[in-house]
Amino acid sequence: MKKAIKLLKWILLLAVVGVLMHQVITLVLPEGRKAKSDDEVYPIERREAWIPKAEIKYDKIIKGPYDVQYSQKIDESYNTTVMDYEAYCEMCEELEIRQTYTNSDADYIVWKNSGSPKIRWDVVNVIARDDVAMVYLKGTVNILRGKAKSGRAIIIPVEKGSIVSAGVGDAYRFEFGRPAVDKPVIYLYPEEEKEVSVSLKMKDAILKCTYPEYKDGWKVIAQPDGTLYADGREYNYLFWEAEALFPFTLKSGTCVEGKDTCKFLEEKLTQLGLSDKEQDDFITYWLPKMQDNPYNVISFQTDEYEEHFGLEITPKPDTIIRVFMTYTASEVYVDIEPEEITTPARTGFTVVEWGGCEIPE
Question: What contacts 208, CB < 8 A, 6 or more positions away?
Fold first, then answer.
């Protein structure tokens, strides 16, 4: 009797282990995830909270499952194409993968890759701008081996004719948090009272907050002392914040002890051309975030910032000073290549902007 009870306990234990292993395989391995119906909303639900729906253009992407499909016949390195329905059907037949979508009125973004079956790919997001789509993918290594299939394809349906090209982006930002472009403020100093239009030309970024309200740009009356008027109100500057859909890099800069950050910022901001008032605004915003860190690795970005956050101003200013600081806190001193800083001359109609971004360690 005792042996029978002991045997029964072992059987129950093995059954529980088997159920748990099945759950692990279902969650970890791509082939364990079942395709969802076409009526379910993308992207993958467990990442949906990371992506504010109100800020992403969904209008050109058709709802549906973005699952990984496997084949042994994909030999080329990844490429992203936009196929019509007929080409999509031919590809599914050629690669011997199931035809998930049956909408002949849609085009299909197809991403194909060869590689180890231990790599799992997740579609973290798809952003459509005009006739171009970017598919952001995150690759992780499976703890358990998948089936012995080397190829994979991810297929995303889009409105027919709306997308003509597509690309693949790194989903780093969605795993570790998208860098916040904090409090860029824009000061306008015309030589005489002037109506000025200002617009942001952002690339791979999401505008999160503005003041005054950004209506396809700002239109203000600017005074020589920097005072701005719009919609019957007075402003000291134009304010905006955004989330970057790319990781900033720290290629050069300075490592400063937290207690010395204030003095460092005063010196560098003077070199960068900011007035005492502008420095006060900058330092009182950033210093509380930085002074208690053991060290701050600080870099004043130029190329990356200009590439992703363009500024268009009419009438054209005589002088534009854009100061964008990136920094990361560090427990130890970091040896980094020094950066070169030039001091601009403030002449004529002058525009000054400052902002910053904390980069996680």
Answer: 55, 180, 241, 242, 243
Higher pLDDT, 146 or 161: 161
The answer to whether the bond into 65 is cis (omega within 30° of 0) is no
The yes-or-no verdict on residue 258 having pLDDT over 60 is yes
pTM of the model: 0.57
Mean model confidence pLDDT for the chain: 78
Can you tell me the mean pLDDT for 193-208?
90
Higher pLDDT, 127 or 108: 108
> Mean pLDDT throughout 154-168?
82
* Whole-angstrom distance, CA of residue 189 vs CA of residue 52: 36
Residue 331 has φ and ψ, to the nearest 5°, of -80, -20
What is the band of 20 on the pLDDT scale with cuts at 50, 70, 90? low
Supply φ then ψ for residue 107, to 5 degrees: -95, 170
CB 238 within 8 A of CB 228: yes
Q: What are the domain boundaries of the chain?
A: 33-176, 180-358
Secondary structure, 3-state, the chain: CHHHHHHHHHHHHHHHHHHHHHHHHHHHCHHHCCCCCCCCCCCCHHHHHHCCHHHCCCCCECCCCCCEEEECCCCCCCEEEEECHHHHHHHHHHHCCCCCCCCCCEEEEEEEEECCCCEEEEEEEEEEECCEEEEEEEEEECCCCCCCCCEEEEEEEEECCCCCEEEEEECHHHHHCCCEEEEEEEEEECCCCEEEEEEEEECCEEEEEEECCCCCCEEEEECCCCCEEECCEEECCEEEEEEECCCCCCCCCEEEEHHHHHHHHHHHHHHCCCCHHHHHHHHHHHHHHHCCCCEEEEEEECHHHHHHEEEEEECCCCEEEEEEEEEEEECCCCCCCCCCCCCCCCCCCEEEEEEEEECCC
Least reliable range by pLDDT among 28-37, 181-190, 244-253: 28-37
Closest by Cα among 111, 120, 116, 113 to 148: 116
What pLDDT does 348 receive? Answer: 96
Q: How far is CA 142 from the centre of its chain?
A: 24
Q: How far is CA 81 from the centre of its chain?
A: 22
